[in-house]
Amino acid sequence: MNIKNKETYKFQSEVKQLLHLMIHSLYSNKEIFLRELISNASDAIDKLRFKSISSPSLYQSNNLPKIQISINKAQKTLIINDNGIGMTKKDIIENLGTIAKSGTKSFLKSLENKTNDIKNELIGQFGVGFYSSFIVSDKVIVRTKFAGNKSNEGILWESQGTGEYNITNIAKKTKGTEIILFLKKEEEEFLETWRIKNIVSKYSDHITTPIEIQTYEEKSKTYIWEQINQAKALWTKNKSSISEKEYQEFYKYLTNDQNNPITWSHNHVEGTHEYISLLYIPKKAEWDIWNKENKNGLKLYVKRVYIMDNSKEFLPNYLRFIRGVIDSNNLPLNISREILQNNSITKNLKKALTKRSLKMLDTLSKNDNKKYQSFWNQFGLVLKEGPAEDNENLNLIANLLRFTSIKNNSSEQTISLKQYISKMNEKQEKIYYITSDSYISAKNSPHLELFNKKNIDVLLLSDRIDEWMMNYLVEFEGKKFQSISKEDESLNKLTEEKITNNNNIKTDMSDFIKKVKKILGEKVKSVRLTNRLTETPCIVLSDSNEMSTQMAKLFSAAGQPVPELKYIFEINPKHPLIKKISKINEQKIFEEWIKLLLEQALFAEKGNLDNPHKFIARMNKLFIQF
Fold this sequence. Notes:
There is one protein chain. The chain is an alpha+beta fold. The protein is 39% helix and 20% strand. The protein has 22 helices and 22 strands. A nine-stranded mixed sheet has the order 1-6-5-4-7-3-2-8-9, with helices on one face. A five-stranded mixed sheet has the order 10-11-14-12-13, with helices on both faces. A five-stranded mixed sheet has the order 15-17-16-19-18. α9 (344-367) packs across α10 (369-383) and α9 (344-367) runs parallel beside α12.
């Protein structure tokens, strides 16, 4: 091996932190380092296979793709070798000297105060698998040559996992990457062939590339290469021949998630568009599920040839938590991301996979309510994006939504719309709901007083996305949705009977209402009596054609201009406070009370006031006089 031009580099500061943590932390499951290195080798071979479609010369030989593991007990080294795409000098500095992924800081923070099992899980999820080599190694050497480069353009990378690493130009005849681990004395168990076989069987059995280990054959007194994985794509096998454990282990390999998936769907579709899909629902949400640069998506193969990871073109954004594989026979092999986005076949596949995913969730909700509730608790907020994104599947999505209500007596969202409708009162025309900033605020809203009295259930919506979602949920199974904080004829029907029959109250309060209208003027849209309140003196309602209070809050939070909201001011004529105020003769005091009542109702509706100090001063002044 010719060695020249040795250069020394310092690790990126975050890599130093990471290496220190890995080397000095006690991991209960150290074997995961081999899982990560094999996964990286498999990815390198997949990338070469894809690149060679347009550049066949990259293969440079007829050698079949493979990953080889060898053990040298005398030198206490474990060697993992692949004939994949390899790395250039630039690649090796970017991949092994820095961590470019934006989630690095989150990863380091996530390791704090976590159990060993969770740490092992995070290693894979955050894409820092190579560095797990230092859990078991005193020193790591990487020898690599990029496919297509000359034999004198190899690179050697070497580090003891401290503050720096060395890079040297070397001669390397074959493409690909060789990783040499100099194992710590206490980690010599990984020099045993049986141990390596067990790890490969556990984590990497379904990698499509053959994994071989060098073993000594007593009979011939020679070393031979023995394949130790099945090397057959799981999704291409017949469903009846795949065990539940095999599905679960393949999911773990695919996602680096140590939890078993909640459920999965495996389908082979023939016809105009022939494809195989294997879709999984994870047990837990990814750490960056709300990150716009979230990498989740399906792994795409075309005629068993790897094309790309994290392909988002086959599922809508509101299903971004679904993981899995799609293998199509129709897409062109040289497809690029740009072509993929505009390909008609892709659009048809997306349509089919979206329905498949929603039906998988629907089946889960019907067959295992406990598991579905677990799914909803993790991914419900994401699924709530669906009505705005996917009108075509609106009914399917609506059926999967879960809510809490005034009868639920819990903030946990467990009620389906079908369950709500099945328990509606005979004369109830609509599905009633209220949106608010929190569950407590929604549950204690004065708008609910009439519904509690009449034993009519109301859905309580307190997630930030709920108001936006309800703009797209118009009806469900023939029942329209109605916000109880907006004016509506069905709400009027619930109250007008009692007010109509009580003419004495209407007559006695007519002058009072006129005076209130004169005082408030343009501050409100209208003033009227209501019989929907039992404990509260007054409330405000939004006009049916105007923006709701919660939507105005969303616009404001997003920095968007918000039109002036004028509310309908409703007064409870039976409330003791209203009766007392109506008898006040002194005009100035009467005006102060009316203004205070409006501010009180606005505060209850909006959760804030434009001038809270003025409200407090007015209240204190009246308390002294009353």
